[in-house]
Please model this.
Amino acid sequence: MAEARKFVFVSPDYGSSITENGCCGSGCCDFEAVVLSGNAKDLTNAVKQRYGALAERAGKRGLEASENKASDKFYSDSQCSIIPDEAAGASTGSGNPLAYADVVAGETILDLGSGGGIDCLLLSSSVGDSGRVIGVDMTPRMVSLARDNARKLELANVVFKRGHIEQIPQDETSVDLVISNGVISQSEWKHMVFSEMFRVLKPGGRFVISDLVTDELLPDSIRDSTGQWVEGVGGAAVRSAYLRMIESAGFVDVEIVDERPGPNGTEEWRHLVKSLTIKASKPLG
Ligand SMILES: C[S@@+](CC[C@H](N)C(=O)[O-])C[C@H]1O[C@@H](n2cnc3c(N)ncnc32)[C@H](O)[C@@H]1O
Model:
């Protein structure tokens, strides 16, 4: 059984100094700004390493078909034709939250764990010139790759920031819609992620997230495996606990809009893992 993990932020105030296109400086977006104990630090670094390496490979040549890109599984041919190979190659989401997002022109949308930027790039035309899409990711190489991808498409309404989803570098009540795709299961502090989502959303705002959950607690050997953690399986919460965290953060009208099997594999426990797409709202009042 993994030991209890302590988590303290030493720079809780991102303040108003966040640059439009990057982090806020003074180390607030760096891992060193977050004090973690025990193997929590190792897990976060392992996630960064895994996705940093993926960004590097995808940025060079896109991935081979054999690498089982999320873009091949969850996105239409017309969606894939819009984005650069490097964005498709880095796509590792667990669903397609955009299919349920009902985006309106002019909205401000925040993507938590934006990776190579696939969802942000696709949302750019939906929000139009008067809208804005902001991606946040803690892995520096992923942020660079996403920025390169947005530059290739000459998208002026998309920005990528480096930061942690447990302490989102975004003002409160500034966002109409939060999306996230295959990311929150990699956070050890999911309750903080949900309360941060609540903080940044405007009253009446909504989220649509795709993520991995489990029907029952997975074996300790899986939950304690760094390899399974970085794939989003080791840290997947039990569905009932996951939904409770969403409600505890203050969200209402919580709805599972899509459910499918989790990542393929032959192990016995795999049937317990599900990919859900969940919608919920922040109350108006
Ligand atoms: C499985 S990939 C999904 C990327 C993207 N959403 C997509 O659909 O392709 C997970 C991404 O989330 C980022 N990530 C994981 N945990 C994070 C955290 N606590 N804070 C910020 N980013 C995180 C990783 O760096 C990685 O780029």
Remarks:
- The chain is about 30% helix and 20% strand.
